[in-house]
């Protein structure tokens, strides 16, 4: 009997602090009961305070990583994170075209939690045009949604109207204002929408977007429907922030795995 966990292919950057990037992906996916297959797209110089620099990998290295994994393992879902360049957007689009009919979660990472850029806005526009049409979900926060929609002062509803022609489902996360409750809004191309609210937590967090997108990819890999997967991923992410650590001088790190995870 095959007892293997569902496998989620992750295409994202490496954060040496471990708060975000591929380590966040791996931990969040493991917590859903899945296995993460991390393909590195970029190396970053960052910590809990901000991003200092980054370098996008050679496309052939990314192709080679993805080919090695997909030729051997059965991929149940894909999670996209930091890509960093127009060339990498094209590289990932080509990889995805070889993986039809599986859920894809696109987290359009353009800014780190500390505000540092992880790619020019043109990278976001390229993701909108070339990757969102391939994705099951896009999970931008509101500032990222405004960049993608080219609406600097747009509301979540306005951004969704601009972006839904590109993607099937759009989850725009809140938490960037000063409201007492955080509103996370799910929009679907069929015109339906749903708002999930949660209590605002007092901290500032590094890797929350990676955590949510990876948890969502894991839930989809398990075969959950869209609404159930979103609700489970949001609830899990909120708990990781509630229990977050503060190891450095900047933002908190979500606690994605419980202390007794390996007990």
TrEMBL record:
Q: Which UniProt keywords apply?
A: Kinase, Transferase
What Pfam families does this protein's entry cite? Phos_pyr_kin
Task: State the EC number(s).
Answer: 2.7.1.49
Q: Name one GO biological process term.
A: thiamine diphosphate biosynthetic process
CDD domains the UniProt entry points to: HMPP_kinase
Record-linked PANTHER family:
HYDROXYMETHYLPYRIMIDINE_PHOSPHOMETHYLPYRIMIDINE KINASE THI20-RELATED, PHOSPHOMETHYLPYRIMIDINE KINASE
- What is the protein named? hydroxymethylpyrimidine kinase
Species this protein is from: Herminiimonas arsenicoxydans
Upper classification of the source organism reads: Bacteria, Pseudomonadati, Pseudomonadota, Betaproteobacteria, Burkholderiales
**Gene encoding this polypeptide?**
thiD
């Amino acid at each position: 009997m095959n007892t293997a966990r569902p496998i989620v292919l992750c295409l994202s950057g490496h954060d040496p602090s471990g708060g975000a990037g591929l380590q966040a992906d791996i931990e969040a996916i493991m917590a859903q009961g899945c296995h993460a297959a991390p393909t590195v797209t970029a190396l970053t110089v960052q910590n809990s305070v901000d991003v200092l620099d980054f370098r996008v990998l050679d496309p052939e290295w990314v192709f080679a990583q993805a080919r090695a994994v997909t030729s051997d393992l059965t991929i149940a879902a894909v999670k996209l994170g930091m890509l960093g360049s127009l060339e990498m957007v094209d590289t990932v689009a080509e990889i995805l075209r070889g993986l039809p009919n599986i859920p894809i979660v696109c987290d359009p990472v353009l800014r780190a939690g500390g505000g540092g850029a992880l790619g020019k806005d043109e990278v976001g526009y390229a993701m909108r045009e070339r990757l969102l049409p391939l994705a099951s979900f896009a999970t931008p926060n509101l500032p990222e949604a405004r960049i993608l929609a080219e609406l600097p002062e747009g509301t979540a509803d306005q951004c969704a109207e601009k972006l839904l022609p590109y993607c099937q489902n759009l989850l725009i996360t809140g938490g960037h204002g000063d409201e007492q409750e955080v509103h996370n809004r799910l929009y679907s191309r069929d015109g339906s929408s749903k708002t999930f609210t949660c209590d605002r937590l007092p901290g500032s967090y590094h890797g929350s977007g990676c955590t949510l997108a990876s948890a969502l990819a894991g839930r989809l890999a398990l075969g959950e429907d869209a609404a159930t997967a979103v609700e489970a991923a949001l609830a899990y992410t909120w708990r990781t922030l509630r229990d977050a650590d503060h190891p450095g001088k900047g933002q908190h790190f979500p606690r994605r795995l419980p202390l007794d995870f390996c007990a």
